[in-house]
Amino acid sequence: MQISNVQLINLPKVFDERGNLSFLEANKHIPFEIKRSYWIYDVPGGEQRGGHAYITTEEFIVALSGSFDVLIDDGRNKQRISLNRSYYGLYIPKGIWRSMENFSTNSLAFIVASTVYSEHDYQRDYSQFLMLNNASQES
Fold first, then answer.
1. What values do phi and psi take at 34, rounded to 5?
2. Where are the beta strands (DSSP E) in the chain?
3. Domain 3-138 carries which CATH code?
4. How far from 74 is each of 50, 90, 91, CA to CA, in Å?
5. How far, in Å, CA of 104 to CA of 18, rounded?
6. Which of 136, 70, 125 is nearest to 103 (CA)?
7. Which of 3, 12, 128, 137 is deepest in the core (most CB within 10 A)?
8. Count of alpha carbons within 13 Å of 33, Cβ hemisphere only?
9. Which one from 29, 49, 52, 85 is the annotated catalytic residue?
10. Residue 38 exposed, middle or buried by CB count within 10 Å (0-12, 13-18, 19+)
């Protein structure tokens, strides 16, 4: 998988004087069925989350509150994407290394995933990730 497959996706916005509303729907706004959702919060200053790739899982990450950066890496190219609005999110396909950092105070990261949790789906060794991705990109 290449970094060019990562997408920033705008979500619908319903404006209302009482407060705005945004939402997402599987296979409509994001390109997969949602099997799991989770959120990351109360991240201490200077800490990083993620630091892995998935073998089969696709994810969509939204900053519901505050801001943070998502660093993506396909083994050849790297990119930093700042998330700071609740009406767009970052689609990350399988096979892309990701980490999250620079969390603002009271930030809330909401993530939906295409698979149920499985420790076996994680690729946590960066040097192994580089070997596998560079070999598959050369094929």
1. -85, 120
2. 7-10, 13-14, 21-22, 36-41, 49-54, 59-65, 68-73, 78-83, 88-92, 97-101, 108-113, 122-123
3. 2.60.120.10
4. 15, 15, 14
5. 26
6. 70
7. 3
8. 4
9. 52
10. exposed
Identify the pLDDT of residue 132: 81
- Domain range annotation of the chain: 3-138
Render each residue's pLDDT in the chain as its tens digit; 139 residues: 789 899 999 999 999 999 999 999 999 999 999 999 999 999 998 889 999 999 999 999 999 999 999 999 999 999 999 999 999 999 999 999 999 999 999 999 999 999 999 999 999 999 999 988 775 555 4
Token output for 60: 């969509």
The encoded tokens of residue 5 equal: 């497959």
Output the six-digit token pair for 95.
């096979």
